[in-house]
Amino acid sequence: MQSSAPELPHAIAPPHRPAAGAGTAAIAAYGMLVLIVATVFAALDRQILVLLAEPMRQSLRMSDTQIGLLQGAAITLVSGVAALPIGWLADRYGRRAMLAACVLVWAAATGACGLAQDFTTLFVAAAGLGIGEAGLGPIVYGLIPQIVSARRRVLANGVYALAAIFGGGLGLTLSGAMVKSLDAVRPWLPVAWQGLEPWRLAFLAVAIPGPLVALAVLLIRLHPWRADRQPMDALPGRLAPFRPYRRQHGHTMATVFGGVGLATLGVVVTSTWLPIIATRHFGASIADVGQGTGLATLLGTAVGALAGAAGAKLLGGRLGVALPVRVISVGSVVAALATAAMPLASQASTLYVLLSIQVASLIAGSVLIPTLLQDMTPEALRSRVIALGTAVTVVISSLSPVLVGLASDLLRASPAGLLALAAALGTTGFVLGAWLMFVAEQPYVRTVHAVHPELARGHRTP
Question: Domains (ranges, CATH) in the chain?
Answer without folding.
Answer: 24-225+238-453 (1.20.1250.20)
